[in-house]
Amino acid sequence: MPLTPEQLADIDASRQNPQPTLRAVAPGMEQHLYTAQPVLDHGFVRVIDYMGDDAAIVQAARVSYGAGTKKARDDSGLIRYLMRHWHSTPFEMCEIKLHVKLPVFVARQWIRHRTANVNEYSARYSILDREFYIPAPEHLAAQSTVNNQGRGEVLQGAEAARVLEVLKADSARAYDHYEEMLSQEGQAGLARELARMNLPANVYTQWYWKVDLHNLFHFLRLRADAHAQFEIRVYAEAIAEMVKDWVPAAYGAFEDYRMGGVNLSGKAVEVLKRRLAGETVTQEASGMSKGEWREFEGVFG
């Protein structure tokens, strides 16, 4: 169970006590409020609060009040224009606050996105639960031979079983020692802030993460990408589904221009022009590095 009985009771109480409001409400996001979306083996993402919608983006761009006489398709066109030309400020008018439960090593990667407000569960004041991320067999992979940041072939048979056993045994042993070291009920031992240093990076933590839509899109562009590490990508994908329901016009533009689009260097544009003119262009004649050329060919062949 990813949520504690206390958290579930809090969710039930919140959902059973809706309050009237005059603020803008996004019907698609209302269905996600408080509900936990399971991620990995013990993790989850849930929406705690949000502000704004597609109309808030348009309103900020026009610096006007009310719906006015503009039609929905005009609003969508404006949002696409803003996305296409990298006008970020109107997207900052929307914000979302998430409650996330995630492994510590994923949190350390996630926190590199420094444009959010974060408050994490404190192991100085509280005792962490005995919960560890253990990858499913299909996600156990060797180091890639061509990418220093990626994975290669999936481990098979006895090797996969050996690695899984090591992960489980080390996690259990570390937590056993953590419990043994803790000062509890007046007994001698280590303070919580010291005992926690023995825990592995796959132990679960929790935090509240509040971010505006512009910076959330940047997070999703990197972390929901197929090349992102699986363990953070599944969180990004879960959040993306919520954002799609929250601001459908903005998410559609983001999906088209950021996730589905390609940014080209001046050299790449020149190569495309030369190709369209009928010229055969090689990597050596392109002015691009081998890495740039490989990425270029990956898109354009």
UniProtKB/TrEMBL annotation:
SUPFAM superfamilies: Thymidylate synthase-complementing protein Thy1 (SSF69796). The lineage of its organism: Bacteria, Pseudomonadati, Pseudomonadota, Alphaproteobacteria, Rhodobacterales. Pathway: Pyrimidine metabolism; dTTP biosynthesis. The active site is at 223 (involved in ionization of n3 of dump, leading to its activation). Catalyzes the reductive methylation of 2'-deoxyuridine-5'-monophosphate (dUMP) to 2'-deoxythymidine-5'-monophosphate (dTMP) while utilizing 5,10-methylenetetrahydrofolate (mTHF) as the methyl donor, and NADPH and FADH(2) as the reductant. This is Flavin-dependent thymidylate synthase. Belongs to the thymidylate synthase ThyX family. One of its GO terms (biological process) is dTTP biosynthetic process. Its cofactor is FAD. It comes from the Bacteria. The gene is thyX. Its EC number is 2.1.1.148. Homotetramer. DUMP binds at residues 109-112, 120-124, 196, 223. GO terms for molecular function: flavin adenine dinucleotide binding; NADPH binding; thymidylate synthase (FAD) activity; thymidylate synthase activity. Binds 4 FAD per tetramer. Each FAD binding site is formed by three monomers. InterPro entries: Thymidylate_synthase_ThyX, Thymidylate_synthase_ThyX_sf. FAD binds at residues 89, 112-114, 120, 212-214, 218. Keywords: FAD, Flavoprotein, Methyltransferase, NADP, Nucleotide biosynthesis, Transferase. It catalyses: dUMP + (6R)-5,10-methylene-5,6,7,8-tetrahydrofolate + NADPH + H(+) = dTMP + (6S)-5,6,7,8-tetrahydrofolate + NADP(+). It comes from Rhodophyticola porphyridii.
